[in-house]
Amino acid sequence: MTIRSNIEKTLDNAEKLNGSLNSFLKIDRDYALRRAEELDNSGAKPGALHGFAVAVKDNICTSFSQTSCGSKILGDYRPQYDATAVSRLIDDGAVIIGKTNMDEFAMGSSNENSAFGNVKNPWDLDRVPGGSSGGSAVAVASGVVRASLGSETGGSVRQPASFCGIAGLKPTYGRISRYGLVAFASSLDQIGIFGQTSRDIASLLGVIAGRDKNDSTTADVAVSDYVSELDNDISGIKIGVPRALFGEGLDDEVRNSVENAIENYRKLGAEIVDVELPNSKYSIAVYYILATAEASSNLARFDGVRYGFRAEDAHELREMYMKTREEGFGAEVKRRIMLGTYVLSSGYYDAYYSKAQKVRTLLKNDFLSAFEKCDAIITPTSPSTAFKIGEKSDDPLSMYLSDIYTASANLAGIPGISIPCGLSSEGLPIGVQLLGPAWSESKLLCLANRFESEFPLSKKPEYFV
Amino acid sequence: MKEGWEAVIGMEIHAQLKTETKIFCGCAANFGDEPNANTCPVCLGLPGALPVLNEKVVELGAKAALSLGLNINETSIFSRKNYFYPDLPKGYQISQFDKPFSSNGTLEVLTAERDESGHAKDWKPIKIHIERMHLEEDAGKNVHEGLPDVDKYSYIDLNRAGTPLGEIVTGPDFRTSWQAYDYVNHVRRVLQWVGASDADMEKGNLRCEANVSVRKVGEEKFRNKVELKNLNSVRFMQKAIEYEIERQIEAHESGEGVNQETRLWDEKNNKTKVMRSKEDAHDYRYFPEPDLQPLKVSTEFIEKIKSEIPELPDAMLARFQRDYDLTFADASQLVGDISLAAFYEATAAASKNARASANWILSELQREWNAAGNSAADSPVSAENLAELIRFLDEEKINGKQAKEVLIEMFASGKSAADVVKEQGLEQISDSGAIEKIVEDVMAANEGQVAAYRGGNEKLLGFFVGQVMKASKGQANPKMVNEVLLEKLK
Ligand SMILES: [Zn+2]
Fold first, then answer.
1. Of the candidates B48, B89, B290, which has its C-beta nearest A61's C-beta?
2. Chain B closest CA to A188's CA: distance in Å?
3. Residue B476: beta bridge partners?
4. Closest by alpha carbon to B397, among B424, B359, B426?
5. Angle at B476 between CA B475 and CA B482, to 5 degrees
6. ipTM of the shown complex
7. CATH of domain B432-488
8. Among residues A237, A261, A272, which one has the least CA distance to residue A381?
9. A161-180: per-residue pLDDT in tens?
10. Residue B469: predicted pLDDT
11. Which member of A23, A26, A57, A71 is catalytic?
């Protein structure tokens, strides 16, 4: 088997399923085949990902393909450079086969906010795949690729992983370079990885993690050998359960499935302890203040002056700005820009932004004290299974609440992984989330790997290659 | 200024720090190049690009801050200043807001009022409070000239976007336009002196804005202030402030009042005009820049920078007056530029004649520099060679008139004083044996005059001196000739 023939098959699968699932915004057939041939011909084997097909969320810059961020305002914008994560994958021998659909500028939890149509959940085409990295989740869940890159600002990898029945990792803030990840909320954004299993995630993470001189917020912390540490013993590991979060608003089937997962971890030798996260009830409020504040500034550069969409028939500068942004951005993006602009405005800054930063510190401290008692914390990933397309799209507040279990990890900068822990009565996957202290990816992947091996899902989604 | 009124002026200076590369990327910090030649994803504000702080900016910023009497803060925070403008590629400027790089400085500035002809009257020091100097990036430039279809299009050149700036903000401490003028010149000179900035207003690497208000003498509260922009030289700035003071006094007295607004200096019509009113003022929505870590500066770093800062011009001015016995005027001319001051000190040390060194540099050599477009930094005559010339003069090897000619030749050829003197055969004959011989020859040839002299006609001494000088082709040391003649004619 050549790399070319493998990649060709992958591309065929992607094209075949895309009509139903809409998970790819661009399938880069020519580029991927050319790259595969180069690898076949070169003889050298640059790294462990030699010939490995990867799909990349369309907010991560690729010089060989478009980077639309799921927005009309960028459209088929072609970056001048590759994101660090992308160039590290390529240097290791991976083949990027296309760019995946997403909520516009990663703002959304259902993928209904893409300017280029919904992504469908391969378990049930009437349901959302989660968001904002829905396309990358579906590319993996439908079996097109073993792994893909997504991005997280407040659960945008873990929540779709949960809705689609796959593994999804949000690393520690500063673990993977953000250089080339189009910013939504810079202090929260982090590239995440989806995998059919946590082993796939481990093999990508080892390649793309680590200090990058182009991103001052990456940390100079040693990168573990995640793959070889996957099979470490988990007995005696302490898993904390924040019981207070298992109450109101949590779907019964999800609760039961997660309780069952906790019991299964106990059987595997983990010690289960109670922990408290008293400030996590504020996480959604804090998240939507800080994320929108940063977004209002990060998205200012999309002004029609230098690249992307520019409204026609504007007669002067201010009108050009207004029309371009009015026509170029979707409703949710505009809602968040307005929210963020408001919370930063003079006279409101202290009441919102400053206060939210203070609560963010309290949240971080909650986790620090909890991790004195345990090695990892377990919670549901999302309060429900995948909801119906259109079910929450008119109710932004209830949509925002689907991030309730995930957003606090972004605020605290800690890593989290979601893995499937069962199927609902309707046959939809349920996700369980493990959170760990900063730089504990190896331990989280190890815990996830053990669970996946012992308790795999009993079936595949309806749409699977 | 009208009796009973007083002006209140605060200054904001933007100085471009003299780094080779921009503040947050590796692009060259030159903006005379082809438009947009010095750009990259970071300074173009492309999606996904991130800033990385240039360490050299911190070094030069520290030099600037310390030499302006500011305290460097152990931790400072970069913040985003949000506004839309085509020359601002990210839609925000990375600046500093509530935690600036340096703050709370006191600076002593020599200042003087000027008479009608612009001459300074009485130099005296005033103390200025400098609130802060923070670090930030510059914006690009909109170009409306010299390109095709400029009536239809605006062009943008982002070469300047991301060049490093230090913004220096004073308290409302100036009471006259000349104080502000002397302050800006002081800052310019200090920044050039320590190598932190070229501080050239014409090239735009130093820009200033003035906040001007007036009040009745004795009033404690400030009245509405006006921010003055488009001040393209220190002189325009002084004129604009002066104009504004008079305009505001008149507006207050007529009952019309002064609006809090931004006004531009219109150099054609010599007046200020409204640019925008307070109602149009931006809400910049500052917040901490999440893409950059807080900037931490260690005590060791500050000590290292302090040790690298040379003696500053005002300290040197005082020392020159004290140690070299120079006048205020001469000393201040010599400290006008760091290389001139160094040139002077080297000359004075080698010649052991501090006052003559000052005179020669400020008159003869300065004239040659001016004519040739040179300065102390690239002088064809080195300090050592000038000192040698001054020594020859002091030792009376040559006379003053000859020395001036020698200097011109030294300047043209780059040769040493000794070489020029030798080549031109200018060296005085100071060998007493040689002079005696000439004197004897002259006396032998003029026996009649010798007798007349000895008979009492002492006026003839001049005749003998002339003959001896003629015989020595002017090279005999005139003082020695005199002495020998007096001796021999006895
Ligand atoms: Zn650049």
1. B48
2. 9
3. B429
4. B426
5. 150
6. 0.96
7. 1.10.10.410
8. A261
9. 999 999 999 999 999 999 99
10. 85
11. A57
